[in-house]
């Protein structure tokens, strides 16, 4: 079971999204058409099968406008559901439900889409031992939610930001003069709990990286043959991460080279929203 994100973290994101949608005058359509005392019963229903993520976003969006509202989840984050599945049932003030609808659906559909795509990648490498991880290519302001959705889909998280691990990229190497020098400086700076990863573009740089003894080496846009050679040389000495242009069509072959981790930016920057609707019932 996936441990949900705390409401304390999710609520500010939901509130900002609601404020953006409600604007200066609130939902004028609901105010004009729906009696203030009217009640409504609705369900969140999947129009397409996929992996659930982000139920708390829908719950908090609704509850923010009607604290007395009843929100009954029918599934859990991380569950795989078919088309037509009811994810949750809601009953409360009609105006509140209608005003929160788009915010709830936007966040829920986005996160379910990421979780669903992540599971597709995880399934594609099943049995190889390679793990699928995300990147920092996330929607500004939504990183914690999107990385949570990756976990719901069976993936693992890369670093959350610039402050929780050292990742030396090609431009850092250019500024330092060499891969080895960059790694040496990083290891001298890092505390005992901070990992050091370095990106390399070819086997020459890979040999230089191994000599400097980082924790992780990222094989950026390596050919399969060069990746397999890097695995032969470095497996067990460092964690080996494959990165760059990974697709569902290529990820299995990459995993079969023996790398430990495959990072996929597409999980968060190119996931298709899972189509979810809000349907009135009763």
UniProtKB/TrEMBL annotation:
GO CC list: cytoplasm
Domain Quinolinate phosphoribosyl transferase N-terminal: 27-112
Matching Pfam families: QRPTase_C (PF01729), QRPTase_N (PF02749)
Annotated signal peptide: none
Function: Involved in the catabolism of quinolinic acid (QA).
Family, as annotated: Belongs to the NadC/ModD family.
NCBIfam families assigned: nadC (TIGR00078)
Subunit-structure text: Hexamer formed by 3 homodimers.
Name of the featured protein: Probable nicotinate-nucleotide pyrophosphorylase [carboxylating]
Species: Phenylobacterium zucineum (strain HLK1)
